[in-house]
From TrEMBL:
Its EC number is 3.1.4.-. AMP binds at residues 269-273, 324, 437, 494. One of its GO terms (molecular function) is metal ion binding. Zn(2+) 2 binds at residue 324. The keyword Repeat does not apply. Coiled coil: none annotated. Binds 2 divalent metal cations per subunit. Site 1 may preferentially bind zinc ions, while site 2 has a preference for magnesium and/or manganese ions. Keywords: Hydrolase, Metal-binding. It is an enzyme of class 3 (hydrolase). Residues 174-534 form the PDEase domain. The active site is at residue 269. This is Phosphodiesterase. GO terms for biological process: signal transduction. It comes from Absidia glauca.
Length: 534
């Protein structure tokens, strides 16, 4: 099929450029989306002639010149709406514009454009425009309205066919609206309308970038004096280390979106925590030899050496930075006791983690669905969702049991049977992400102390809210007597968590990844310092 056989309808207040006429045999130009609609609807009526085939109609390209962003996003939406309604036949919607903002380009794609062409249009671009018709999947058609001709014909159908038809339409209606709950959850908990900052990474000086990179290579990483822009740079720098790995060239990331996904008002579960968890994972995988340590440092080998691929590193980084997305600053117990919509939606099972995974998957779908492709995309989703859910501390004992067994056996043997490769991968992800999530207990004591204070502050705040709502208090959930001010005793609280949970877990994972033995050692040192403060 030659490009010249495609029919091109251009929506533009300007004259179409001559190159378009040179490439396509049939070029029609209209001034506005409304004019385009009239033309398409007229053609649609003509196409109801049974001698016209669908193939003919799918060879139509519609090029919308976005000379005015605001007006033409509306034009694009209007045309896509009619395409979904089925009132204008098939066409492949393309947009062209001189605006090179990636956000704007993505907005056009999200609103239904098959491709975004940067103006001025060159001959090369014009000659490959027809390829969009081969890549494009038309949006799902909406249901015909009850007054449409199909509905009026229904009464002539036999009863059995009518009820089958009703069931079919009801199902279709449900699936057409499947995004509704998802959007409602985001609106309720993630506040998508709050103002978003622009992060201009180019505005950071070379000295500042070098200083941040040096800090990212240190175990004593302390993010609390960093600005949001610094943190966004840290995230993009760490991901860039992964993007240099084989097979990861097509992946890119908008770190600003991740920053906006966290509530800055949470004392603990905020973007600092996400970046901190990401940095500890970066530190760990670079010491394991999967990335170059920065600055250069000795690396160790582990039994995972041939098991972790570049896509695993990417998934682990993504889980770290996204594992608490949209965190409301309260625990699962609060969500369940308060009968929040989220706990009802997820049936009280890993409520927050299910929600974080849902938000994270939304970003993956937006930015990486093309780079991942179909079979890997589904696997990647499973791994990322599983990794985020693993951070639910309610599952901790299960993971301890599984990891103890995994650490004892040879890597290829589970109760005499070989490990399923994917099952093993999910377990390794869970082990590493869980270690990274609680890694702050093993940071140098002065840094660990800040994290501990912030966690207690967040819990105290939840305790206040629980008292107001008459709910069971999280402050009584640790088996520790509250101090004279009714607060969780910080030193005892930390000592208890480190000795009963942290050290044991680092030791168990340390049987698989020897570097974790160092984390256990540092956590032990901190535990004795906390004990001295009790
Ligand atoms: Zn976390």
């Amino acid at each position: 099929m030659k490009p010249s056989n495609y029919e091109l309808l251009v929506v533009s207040p300007f004259q179409p450029i001559a190159l378009l006429r040179d490439t396509f045999k049939h070029v029609t130009c209209v001034k506005s989306a409304k004019e385009a609609l009239v033309r398409l609807q007229t053609q649609q009526q003509q196409h109801q002639d049974p001698t016209t085939t669908t193939t003919d109609r799918s060879r139509r390209l519609l090029l919308i010149d976005m000379e005015n962003e605001q007006g033409n996003i509306i034009s694009l939406k209007l045309l896509i709406y009619h395409l979904r309604q089925g009132t204008v036949g098939n066409f492949v919607p393309l947009v062209c514009c001189a605006n090179d903002s990636s956000d704007y380009m993505l907005a056009c794609i999200h609103h239904g454009a098959a491709d975004y062409l940067l103006k001025p249009l060159s001959l090369n671009v014009i000659q490959t425009m027809f390829l969009a018709a081969h890549r494009y999947s038309p949006p799902q058609r909406l249901l015909p309205s009850p007054t449409s001709s199909t509905a009026s014909l229904k009464s002539d159908l036999p009863q059995a066919i009518q009820s089958e038809c009703h069931h079919y339409h009801q199902l279709k209606q449900i699936f057409n609206q499947h995004d509704g709950i998802y959007q409602a959850v985001i609106n309720m908990y993630a506040n998508p309308n709050r103002p978003k900052k622009e992060f201009d990474l180019a505005s950071l000086s070379t000295d500042r970038k070098t200083a941040l990179e040096r800090r990212l290579g240190e175990w004593g990483f302390n993010p609390f004096d960093l600005s949001d822009l610094d943190l966004v740079y840290c995230v993009s720098w760490i991901f860039d280390q992964a993007f240099h790995l084989p097979d990861l060239a097509p992946f890119r990331l908008s770190s600003g979106d991740l920053c906006h996904g966290y509530h800055a008002t949470n004392p603990y579960h905020n973007f600092y925590h996400a970046v901190d968890v990401l940095q500890s994972m970066y530190y760990l995988v670079s010491r394991m030899g999967f990335l170059h340590p920065h600055p250069p440092a000795p690396t160790t080998t582990s039994r995972l050496h041939n098991r972790i691929t570049s896509i695993d590193i990417l998934a682990l980084f993504l889980i770290c930075i996204g594992h608490d997305l949209g965190h409301p600053g309260v625990t699962n117990a609060f969500m369940i006791n308060a009968s929040t919509s989220l706990s009802l939606l997820f049936n009280d099972i890993s409520v927050l983690e299910s929600y974080h995974a849902m938000l994270l998957y939304r970003l993956i779908k937006t930015y990486w669905s093309d780079a991942l492709g179909a079979p890997l995309g589904a696997l990647f989703r499973k791994r990322v969702v599983n990794g985020v859910i693993a951070t639910d501390m309610a599952l901790h004992q299960d993971y301890m049991t599984k990891l103890k067994a995994f650490g004892r056996t040879s890597i290829d043997d589970k109760d005499g049977k070989p490990y399923d490769e994917e099952e093993e991968r999910l377990l390794i992800y869970a082990a590493l992400i869980k270690c990274a999530d609680i890694s702050n207990i093993a940071r140098p004591f002065e840094v660990a102390k800040v994290w501990a204070n912030r966690l207690v502050e967040e819990l105290q705040c939840q305790g206040q809210l629980e008292a107001e709502l008459g709910l069971p208090s999280c402050l009584n959930g640790f088996g520790l007597p509250l101090d004279s001010k009714g607060q969780i005793p910080l030193a005892a609280f930390q000592h208890q968590f480190i000795t009963k949970v942290g050290i044991g877990f680092f030791d168990v994972v340390g049987d698989i990844v020897p570097d974790l033995k160092n984390w256990a050692h540092m956590a032990r040192q901190n535990a004795s310092l906390w004990q001295q403060q009790q």
